[in-house]
Specification:
This is Protein argonaute 1. Helix content is 26%, strand content 22%. The chain is of the alpha+beta class. Helix 8 (284-299) packs parallel to helix 9. The longest helix has 19 residues, at 474-492.
Length: 672
C-alpha cells in the first residue's frame, strides 16, 4: 500500500498584545480597582507574566522592550529607590511624575520587575504593553483548548490541501538562501510504502452469546459478550455531587449500571450498602469520610467496601482530584466517577475490576517472544509540571504486567522526583538500614516481586516501553535506566539477568501519514484517516537503527498522529514484524474502552498513573517554596519505601514524598 507523507505544520497559542493592566483584569476576571490583590492573585499574575516581553508606552515613540522577571512585594505607592551616591531615596510615583509627567493611577498594585537582583528595575503595570507575536507556553484552560482544537482540527484531505497550498505559496524554488545552500524542496509529498497489520482476535467468556470477536476498523462493542474474568462488587455506595441530578435519577442510574455490569459478566450486587445521597462539592471531604464510616459500620468487621460510585457536575473544577486523593490515599476506597451528561444518557460502558478481554493468541500461547516463557511488559513515563510552575516536582510512573500469558493486568508505582528530571530516579536504589545494613529496592524490584507473587514464576524476558523521551536524551535514558533494570534483577538473585528489549514511544512529533487516494474506501476509515494497523518502517525512518511508525487506532476527528517506536536495545532479538505485531495487538487490550488505542497500553497506563499522582500533591499556595520527592506506598501496587527522598544527578534538594496509597487500592488498576 502506498502512502504520502509530510512533516506537519503546527498550531500554537499566542499572548494577546494588550496593555498589561487589561491583561491582568482579564486574567483575574474582575475590575482591578475594586479591591487590593490577595496573595493568590499575586501568584496567578506572576505565573502568567514571568518571561513575557513588554514595551513601555510612557515615552512617546521610544518603545523600549523588557522581559518580566517577577513582581515587587511592595505596592507601586510604597516603592522607593536610591537616586544618588549618598543613598537619597525617591518614590516610583514621584519619579514618573517629575521625569515623564506621568501620573500613576494604580498605586495599590505591585510593579513589574524587569531587572535583576543586582540592578533592580521597576515598571508600573499601566505603562507597559505586551509585545506582539509571543508564543503562549503556559497551560491552557479547558475553554482555550476547545477553541484551539476547533480552529486547528482538520480532516486529512483538508490538512493535506492546506500544506500543499502553503508550500506552493512559500515558493522555496525562488528562495535565494535555499538556492545558495543548494537546498531543493519538492512541492510533492514524499511517497512511502506501508503495510496494514491485521487486528487480533479477542476472547470473551464462554457463557456469552459471542465467545470471541474480531474488531472492525479498530473498534468493537460489548453487546452479547461477557468479560473473560469479571470483577466482583459485593459492597458499594453512591454519592451525587451534581445539583442537576435528582435522587430518583441517581438511584435509577445506579440500578442500570449494576444491571449492565451483571449482564457483562461481573458479580455485582444490585443493592448499595446504604442509600445514595446528594451533597455539595465544597463538603467533599466531610461527606466522603462520614459516608464511608456509615457504610463500614453497617458492613461490620472483616468486610470491605468494594466501590464508590460518584456523580459529578460536568464542570467540576478541583472536585475530581480532591475526591481521588481522599479515596486513594486516606480512605482506601476504589471510586468510579460519572459525569452528569453520562448519567442522563444512561451510558452503560462503565466497567471496573477483573479482566474485560484477552488476546486469543495469548491464551493459545501463539505470541512470538511472549508466550514461550514468562514475560513481563513494563511501561514507564515521566510527566513534568507545566511551564511557569517552577517549584513543582516531576512525577515518574512505572507499570508492569502481573499476569502471564494473558498480559492484560498491570500494577503501577509512582514517585515524585526533582523538577524536570527525565531519568527515573527510583527504578533501583540502595540505602543503609540501621538494623539490616545495606538494603536495595525501587520500582523495578517491587514489580518483579509482585509478578512472581501473582504468577508463581519469575520473568524470563523483559520488554520495557518508555514514553516521553526526546531524541536528544535517548542514550542518556537508556544507559541510566537499563543499568537500573540490570541492578534490580541482580539484587533478587546473583545471576538473574533476563534479556531486555527497551523501546521508546513518541507521540510528540510532526509526522503525518496520508492515504494516496482519499476516496479509496479500502485505504481509509470513516474519518478519512489511514486504517488502524498501518505501519511504516522504511524511507522516513532511521537508516541504520530499529524504528517504525504505527497508527494503531481509528481516527475520530482531525488527522491521526501515528506513534513512533524506536528500539534502543534488543537482547530478545525481535524481528521487525514480531515487535510491530506485538505492539499493535497490545493496543487492543486497553481496559478503558472497546477501541484500539494510539499508544501501547503499558505506556498509556504509566501516563495515567503519573497524571493521577499530581492530584495527591498539596496545592501550591505561595510563589516560593519547593515540592520534593518520594514514592507511594510499600510493595505491590504502590512500591518503593514510603518517605525516602530522591536526589537526582546534580540535584541538591530532597523532594517531598507523595502520600502513600492504601493497600486495597493498590490491588486494582486504580489509575484507569
Amino acid at each position: 500500500m502506498g502512502l504520502s507523507l509530510n512533516i506537519d505544520m503546527s498550531s500554537t497559542a499566542f499572548i494577546e498584545p494588550l496593555p498589561v493592566i487589561d491583561f491582568v483584569q482579564q486574567l483575574l476576571n474582575r475590575d482591578v480597582s475594586s479591591r487590593p490583590l490577595s496573595d493568590a492573585d499575586r501568584v496567578k499574575i506572576k505565573k502568567a507574566l514571568r518571561g513575557v516581553r513588554v514595551e513601555v508606552t510612557h515615552r512617546g515613540n521610544m518603545r523600549r522592550k523588557y522581559r518580566i522577571s517577577g513582581l515587587t512585594s511592595q505596592t507601586t505607592g510604597e516603592l522607593t529607590f536610591p537616586v544618588d551616591e549618598s543613598g537619597t531615596l525617591k518614590s516610583v510615583v514621584e519619579y514618573f511624575y517629575e521625569t515623564y509627567g506621568f501620573v500613576i493611577q494604580h498605586t495599590q498594585w505591585p510593579c513589574l520587575q524587569v531587572g535583576n537582583q543586582q540592578r533592580p528595575n521597576y515598571l508600573p503595570m499601566e505603562v507597559c504593553k505586551i509585545v506582539e507575536g509571543q508564543r503562549y507556553s503556559k497551560r491552557l484552560n479547558e475553554r482555550q483548548i476547545t477553541a484551539l482544537l476547533k480552529v486547528t482540527c482538520q480532516r486529512p484531505h483538508e490538512r493535506e490541501r492546506d500544506i500543499m497550498q502553503t508550500v506552493h505559496h512559500n515558493a522555496y524554488h525562488e528562495d535565494p538562501y535555499a538556492r545558495e545552500f543548494g537546498i531543493k524542496i519538492s512541492e510533492k509529498l514524499a511517497s512511502v510504502e506501508a503495510r496494514i497489520l491485521p487486528a487480533p482476535w479477542l476472547k470473551y467468556h464462554d457463557t456469552g452469546k459471542e465467545k470471541d470477536c474480531l474488531p472492525q476498523v479498530g473498534q468493537w462493542n460489548m453487546m452479547n459478550k461477557k468479560m473473560v474474568n469479571g470483577g466482583t462488587v459485593n459492597h458499594w455506595i453512591c454519592i451525587n455531587f451534581s445539583r442537576h441530578v435528582q435522587d430518583s435519577v441517581a438511584r435509577g442510574f445506579c440500578f442500570e449500571l449494576a444491571q449492565m455490569c451483571y449482564i457483562s459478566g461481573m458479580a455485582f450486587n444490585p443493592e448499595p450498602v446504604i442509600p445514595p445521597i446528594s451533597a455539595r462539592p465544597e463538603h467533599v471531604e466531610k461527606v466522603l469520610k462520614t459516608r464511608y464510616h456509615d457504610a463500614m459500620t453497617k458492613l461490620g468487621q472483616g468486610k470491605e467496601l468494594d466501590l464508590l460510585i460518584v456523580i459529578l457536575p460536568d464542570n467540576n473544577g478541583s472536585l475530581y482530584g480532591d475526591l481521588k486523593r481522599i479515596c486513594e490515599t486516606d480512605l482506601g476506597l476504589v471510586s468510579q466517577c460519572c459525569l452528569t451528561k453520562h448519567v442522563f444518557k444512561m451510558s452503560k460502558q462503565y466497567m471496573v475490576g477483573g479482566r474485560n478481554t484477552v488476546l486469543v493468541d495469548a491464551i493459545s500461547r501463539r505470541i512470538p517472544l511472549v508466550s514461550d516463557r514468562p514475560t513481563i511488559i513494563f511501561g514507564a513515563d515521566v510527566t513534568h509540571p507545566h511551564p511557569g510552575e517552577d517549584s513543582s516536582p516531576s512525577i515518574a510512573a512505572v507499570v508492569a504486567s502481573q499476569d502471564w500469558p494473558e498480559v492484560t493486568k498491570y500494577a503501577g508505582l509512582v514517585c515524585a522526583q526533582a523538577h524536570r528530571q527525565e531519568l527515573i530516579q527510583d527504578l533501583f536504589k540502595t540505602w543503609q538500614d540501621p538494623v539490616r545494613g545495606a538494603v536495595s529496592g525501587g520500582m523495578i524490584k517491587e514489580l518483579l516481586i509482585s509478578f512472581r507473587r501473582a504468577t508463581g514464576q519469575k520473568p524470563q524476558r523483559i520488554i520495557f516501553y518508555r514514553d516521553g523521551v526526546s531524541e536528544g536524551q535517548f542514550y542518556q535514558v537508556l544507559l541510566y535506566e537499563l543499568d537500573a533494570i540490570r541492578k534490580a534483577c541482580a539484587s533478587l538473585e546473583p545471576n538473574y539477568q533476563p534479556p531486555v528489549t527497551f523501546v521508546v514511544v513518541q507521540k510528540r512529533h510532526h509526522t503525518r501519514l496520508f492515504a494516496n487516494n482519499h476516496h479509496d474506501r479500502n485505504a481509509v476509515d470513516r474519518s478519512g484517516n489511514i486504517l488502524p494497523g498501518t505501519v511504516v518502517d522504511s524511507k522516513i525512518c532511521h537508516p541504520t537503527e530499529f524504528d517504525f511508525y504505527l497508527c494503531s487506532h481509528a481516527g475520530i476527528q482531525g488527522t491521526s498522529r501515528p506513534a513512533h517506536y524506536h528500539v534502543l536495545w534488543d537482547e530478545n532479538k525481535f524481528t521487525a514484524d514480531g515487535l510491530q505485531s506485538l505492539t499493535n495487538n497490545l493496543c487492543y487490550t486497553y481496559a478503558r474502552c472497546t477501541r484500539s488505542v494510539s499508544i501501547v497500553p503499558p505506556a498509556y497506563y504509566a501516563h495515567l498513573a503519573a497524571f493521577r499522582a499530581r492530584f495527591y500533591m498539596e496545592p501550591e499556595t505561595s510563589d516560593s517554596g519547593s515540592m520534593t520527592s518520594g514514592t507511594i506506598g510499600r510493595g505491590g501496587m504502590g512500591g518503593g519505601v514510603g518517605a525516602r527522598s530522591t536526589r537526582g544527578p546534580g540535584v541538591g534538594a530532597a523532594v517531598r514524598p507523595l502520600p502513600a496509597l492504601k493497600e486495597n487500592v493498590k490491588r486494582v488498576m486504580f489509575y484507569c
